[in-house]
Amino acid sequence: MHIPGSWILLLFIVLMAAVALVLLHLTKAGHLLHQKIPDRPHRRLLLASISFFVTFLAARLLVFSIQHHVGPFGYVVVGGRHIHHLVWGILLLLLSGYATLAEAGTGDTPGSIFFSRLLSIAYGAGAALTLDEFALWLNLDPAAYWSSQDRESIDAIVLFGALLAVGTWGAPLLRKASKRPS
Fold first, then answer.
1. pLDDT exceeds cutoff 90 at 175
2. Which of 9, 44, 125, 178 has the maximal Cβ count within 10 Å?
3. Per-residue pLDDT tens digits for 127-149
4. CB atoms closer than 10 angstroms to residue 39
């Protein structure tokens, strides 16, 4: 039986999001996160950052397993055309960006907080899926994924991951450092 890789990635992202949201909503972890990181932008950046790195790792492992015929995985092919996972990443980025522009998940109700967290996870996953194939869309060459050109994708992942980390951790540290003692 052949299972398209993007279905595996989609299932993985949905499961990752569900587990993260359940942990954050029904356990003390969510309350602890709310206490330790009190402002919403930094909580959202933290979730996006975690989702970004976990999705990147999952995408790399899945593509590696497809190329080395490990498991029942395969590429998504529609009408003879290989649909790369950056397509799914772009769709996730578009949907989460649109929802954010529409100010979804900005209230203080439990449903709004839940949606805010879901959007953060979707954004991180979409960014990872898209940037994982940065060398492909930069060079317009599908062979760039595991070639020496793939270094461009790794550089893009590291740079954007660092940006997410700085947004999560750097801004609060800079704010505390800039406060003058009374």
1. no
2. 125
3. 999 999 888 888 877 777 777 77
4. 11
Measured over the CA atoms of residue 5, residue 8, residue 14 and residue 16, the dihedral's sign is: negative
Q: What is the DSSP letter of 75?
A: -
90 lies in some domain: yes
At residue 20, does pLDDT exceed 60?
yes
Per-residue DSSP letter, 72: S
In a domain, 177, yes or no: no
Q: Which domain range does residue 156 map to?
A: 3-168
Q: Which helix (H) or strand (E) holds 57?
A: helix 40-67
Radius of gyration of the chain (CA): 18
pLDDT tens for 26-36 read 777 777 767 77
CB 136, CB 142: distance < 8 Å: yes
Phi-psi region of 103 (alpha: psi -120 to 50; beta: other; left: phi over 0): left
Does residue 88 lie within any of the structural domains? Answer: yes
Q: How far apart are CA 164 and CA 40, in angstroms?
A: 14
Count of CB atoms situated within 10 Å of the CB of 180? 5
Q: Which residues pair with 4 in a beta bridge?
A: 74
